[in-house]
Amino acid sequence: MTLVAGLGNLELFSFLMGLSGPIFWVVQTFVGSPYGRHASASFGPPLPVKLAWSLQELPSLLVPLYVVTCTPAKHFSHWPNRILLAMFVFHYLQRALIFPFLIRGGKPVPLFIFLSAFLFCTFNGFLQSQYLSNYAEYSDNWIKDPRFIIGCAIWLMGMLINVYSDNILRNLRKPGETGYKIPRGGLFEYVTAANFSGEVIEWYGYALACWSLEGIAFALFTTFNLCVRAKYHHRWILI
Description:
mainly alpha; 239 residues; two-stranded antiparallel ribbon
């Protein structure tokens, strides 16, 4: 039996997601990271930043809602499954319905970047919610397991860092300003892209709490995707 033949559909999807992370890192290393201050017209017509951000993240809210309500969701009655999916959804509730409408200024989002993010959120929203609703079998005692407790704590710490760092970035600009400034305070005293660092920490906490291939694949993809963006931010600051 080959490795691929021995994998279920969700495991295969997770394997492909994890594998695509390094591929995206290599591609963006050569073609650039056309996002925010690095946006380029060669990646499609620009879309309004608030609308694009909200719509591209929205599938990570709507797809889990569909999975929970329109599929058997045979394991969703267990509290570990509910808590873990709530952690995933809560992040995207903030990213889709709160964060975009707090943006001050901000560069338009190229169509290609918007579509890429929209498709990823759709795919990953299905992967995580399908696993946690219909496949993951946790005992009710999982919420007492050190992996779950520590993972949830790391997830919360990462999300707080992410939200706090976004707030620092947002307040660098006065109303009407659109330029970029070097942020100070919080984790920005130690790393260039504290907001990205917070999100990476968050998803490794989620992966630990889930203790699943689906969770670690998401965390790895996020790491490769955001690290290359952070590299371009750091290079821009040095220039």
